[in-house]
């Protein structure tokens, strides 16, 4: 269990469906819900019996009576039977990541982030699911003028990935405007980090480089800033979004730890006592210089605020990662 794991909220749905449950955020969410007494159906197209990342992400849930895993692709599977009697659907399944979305995989982004979401919305409407919480992204804001992003700001997505996340979020909110169908909260997560973070993300790579001595590729000069959000904080906001009485459109989930990539490198170095070998590379297309959440609406609607500071969060992330690197204790 991560060092900072805490009961995420006093209230949790009785029965819930988590899509993307074999992923980074989805597996933490499913675990926190089961801990809170929720019966969870987790759906993911990655099969934990053949996919090592899915198996590792779901390890803490194996054998738990409150958790039922379904390996299925939301683009094709029968979704309705999975949703019967659910108080909430947490729709986290999707293809994440800014950089690969410029490539030929864009079709996958479109299919999983938009078309599969459409199927989840139709099924939720047919079954009468009362609440859908969907994973949106800070990337919908695009480049900012340096101030904090408000949910009412005009989105300017700067990558194909961000375009699909905006489409996904807006599709869900359009469904929510109808008299039938679920009420919807779209959570705009800001760069979530912590144990089991995806291996393509920066904090994972910086800590891995510090732990192993392997080089870290830095895209740009490292002065890019992110509103890094610790996983347990993201989960607390996500569960709150399922149980607050009124749905409220899009809400930022971020803030509290605005820092540059160089700051993360410095903390990783001090936590491990080892320097990181940097390979500087060109800035990637669609990479924004700054993300910064205005956390006001999340406080107002969800009663949520981030609790874990960057140094403590990175320490917990580093400890979890070190435990997976067999030779680390010998090499250190
Ligand atoms: P992840 O890749 O670890 O998890 C996503 C999961 O969705 C994967 O296990 C994948 O197999 C599953 N999936 C994808 N398409 C599917 C389909 N068609 N049917 C069934 N399962 C499918 O990613 P993550 O970092 O946990 O992100 C979860 C969600 O949060 C994504 O929607 C992502 O866009 C969003 N998000 C993440 C971050 C972050 O910092 N990690 C920030 C903003 C938004
Ligand atoms: C992250 C997630 O990957 C997205 O899925 C999510 O939607 C988004 O956060 C969000 O908050 O909305 P990103 O901010 O690009 O996107 O996060 P990272 O992939 O961790 O990259 C952060 C920064 O580190 C970027 O400037 C990137 O160019 C840089 N980076 C990343 C490197 O310099 N080297 C690397 O090896 C990886």
From TrEMBL:
Positions of the NAD-dependent epimerase/dehydratase domain: 17-254
InterPro entries per the UniProt record, alphabetical: Epimerase_deHydtase, Lipid_A_modif_metabolic_enz, NAD(P)-bd_dom_sf
SUPFAM superfamilies found in the cross-reference section: NAD(P)-binding Rossmann-fold domains (SSF51735)
Region forming the signal peptide: none
Pfam assignment, any one: Epimerase
Protein name: NAD-dependent epimerase/dehydratase family protein
Species per Swiss-Prot/TrEMBL record: Streptomyces incanus
């Amino acid at each position: 269990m991560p060092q900072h794991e805490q009961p995420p909220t006093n209230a949790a749905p009785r029965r819930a469906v988590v899509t993307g449950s074999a992923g980074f955020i989805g597996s933490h969410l499913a675990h926190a819900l089961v801990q809170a007494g929720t019966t969870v159906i987790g759906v993911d197209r990655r099969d934990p019996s053949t996919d090592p990342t899915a198996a590792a992400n779901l390890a803490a849930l194996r054998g738990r009576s409150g958790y039922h895993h379904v390996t299925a692709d939301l683009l094709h599977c029968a979704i309705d039977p999975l949703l019967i009697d659910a108080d909430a659907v947490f729709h986290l399944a999707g293809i994440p990541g800014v950089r690969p979305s410029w490539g030929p995989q864009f079709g996958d982004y479109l299919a999983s982030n938009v078309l599969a979401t459409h199927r989840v919305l139709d099924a939720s409407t047919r079954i009468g699911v009362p609440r859908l919480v969907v994973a949106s992204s800070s990337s919908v804001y695009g480049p900012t003028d340096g101030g904090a992003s408000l949910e009412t700001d005009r989105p300017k997505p700067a990558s194909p990935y961000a375009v699909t996340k905006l489409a996904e979020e807006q599709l869900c909110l359009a469904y929510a405007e109808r008299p039938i169908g679920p009420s919807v909260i779209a959570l705009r997560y800001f760069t979530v980090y912590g144990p089991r973070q995806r291996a393509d993300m920066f904090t994972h790579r910086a800590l891995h480089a510090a732990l192993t001595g392997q080089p870290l590729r830095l895209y740009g000069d490292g002065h890019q800033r992110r509103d890094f959000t610790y996983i347990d904080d993201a989960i607390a906001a996500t569960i709150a979004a399922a149980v607050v009485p009124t749905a409220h459109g899009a809400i930022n989930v971020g803030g509290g730890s605005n820092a540059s990539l160089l700051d993360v490198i410095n903390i990783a170095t001090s936590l491990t006592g080892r320097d990181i070998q940097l390979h500087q590379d060109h800035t990637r297309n669609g990479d924004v210089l700054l993300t910064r959440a205005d956390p006001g609406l999340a406080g107002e609607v969800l009663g949520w605020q981030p609790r874990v500071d960057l140094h403590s969060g990175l320490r917990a992330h580093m400890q979890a990662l070190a435990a997976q690197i067999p030779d680390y204790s010998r090499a250190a």
